[in-house]
Amino acid sequence: MSIIKDDTIKLLNDQLNKELFSASFYFNMSSWCDKHGLKGCGKFLYGHYREELEHFEKFKDFINKVGGQASISEMKAPPSNFKSVQDLFETVAKHEEYVTSCINEIVGFAFENKDYITLRFLDWFIQEQLEEQELFN
Ligand SMILES: [Fe+2]
Q1: How far is the CA of 13 from the centre of ligand 1 (A)?
Q2: Cα-to-centroid distance, 19 and ligand 1 (Å)
Q3: For ion ligand 1, residues whose CB falls within 5 Å
Q4: Which of 82, 99, 105, 123 is the 20 to 30 Å CA partner of 116?
Q5: DSSP string spanning 58-85?
Q6: Taking the domains of the chain in order of start, what are their residue ranges?
């Protein structure tokens, strides 16, 4: 028996997979930059890869703590080719905008269900997404 609704756990698990996708995406972008002699960008994006892994682990810890089961599902490969560094940063800005919308969806669901445990957990991510979007815009 889990502490929060199964439907919420399902949404959190979907988000966990999106965080892992984000990590892989940053990993690919970082390598693309390295390959194209953009070492500074490569290092910057690699740092973001590590941050996304932390996000992924935060979801895992929370899901398992409330009695769910964190699980990784099949993932499509993230892009690994970009037209230019401009194209790369436009792609990542769009991706972060999408991630923010996904977090907002779960917040909305938790709010409707008066699920304050999940809302409190997601609070950190709302702030984090604001910082990410500010940075990439
Ligand atoms: Fe993230």
Answers
A1: 13
A2: 5
A3: 19, 22, 52, 55
A4: 99
A5: HHHHHHHHTT--------PPPP---S-H
A6: 6-69+82-136
